[in-house]
Structures are given as structure tokens and as C-alpha cells.
Amino acid sequence: MSKADQVYNYVSNKVFYLSQSGSKQSANLAKLRRGLGKTPGASPEIWEVTLADLPGDLAGYDGDPSYAEWAIHVALTLFAAHQQGKAETVNASGVLFGGAVSQLIDPDRSNEDGIKRRFDAALTSDGLNEFAHHARGLVQLMRARDVKMDYPLFARNIYDYQFVESKDRVRLRWGESYYRIDSQSETDQEGAQNE
Q1: pTM for this one?
Q2: How confident is the model over 76-99, as pLDDT tens digits?
Q3: For residues 1 and 10, what is the distance between their CA atoms, to the nearest angstrom?
Q4: CA-CA distance, 175 to 173, in Å (whole number)?
Q5: Which three-class secondary structure state does DSSP give residue 77?
Q6: Under a CB-based contact definition with an 8 Å cutoff, are residues 63 and 139 in contact?
Q7: Within 13 Å of residue 150, how many CA atoms lie on the same side as its CB?
Q8: What is the dihedral of CA 128, 129, 132, 136, to 10 degrees?
């Protein structure tokens, strides 16, 4: 199994757990929200969620967060921000980041330029911190508009986004989903690319 697939499975399990009602889940979501905008090593209180049961080959071990740890951290903290105040999960299988962003555009398209500017800013970010900052603003809009997104797939995409050889492919996939260019389900496309 590829590391990207392991990231997907790990975040899928965490999102399933965090989507259940309970005081432990609520407390963990609150902790994750406090980790927004920080590096994976800056918030020890969230490690029980972001690092517990992490497959060994996804860990950094040298004091610097691995690509997988970054992807997991960004996806789960943004999921927690998105889930805040919601009884039903905000995770929706097969809905890519771009597709979710496109749902923010009003029917009369009056806000399209502003949404597109925010989306472009996220996609052309220089690094993962900048990307996470711009994505956070879009996720806050998603929360306000009850737009859902596939967070395990988002984590897998963030993992791939960190590599020069796959960054443009991820951007293109998000752009295709933004403009609703779908020939098969997003999950099927991801699985076919990783075989």
C-alpha cells in the first residue's frame, strides 16, 4: 500500500471516529481546532488524535514532521473547524476540494470572482502553511453554507501536493472538480492513479 493510501485510510478512520457523538470526540475536535495554523509539532494536546496508531513508515522520526504527518495534521484540523457546531458529519465521500469550493458560488454568480480568487490563492501557495491558511478561509465558508467535502481524499491530495512531481496533478484534479469535469467518481480516479 502506498503512503498516500495509508494517509487516506488513517484519516478515514479518524474522521469516522470524530464524526460520532460523544464527549471524547467533542473534546478532541476542540483540541484539533486549537491546532489550526500551527505546525504538527506545536500542539502536543492533539497528538493523541493525529499520531496515535500512525503507521511507522508515515512518521518523521527526526523531529521534523513527515509529509504524511503534515497532510494528516492539516486535514484533521480543517475537518475539526468545518465540523464545529454540526451534528451531522461534514465528510462527504467523493467530493474533492475544488468541487466543494465550487458549491460556494451563489446561483446568480455574484460572488464567483471572490471565491475564485480565494481558490486560486490556495492552489498557488508557496508552501503548505500558506495553503492551509487559504484553505481555512474556504472551509469556514463551507461550514457556513453547509457544504461537505471528502476529508480522507483531501488528506491524500495534500500529501501528494507536497511533491514537485505530483503538485500540478493535484491542482489540476481540484480545478477539474471545481469546474465539474467528472468522467467517473473521484474515489475511483484516485484508486486508478495509485495502482
Answers
A1: 0.91
A2: 999 999 999 999 999 999 999 999
A3: 12
A4: 5
A5: helix
A6: no
A7: 21
A8: -170
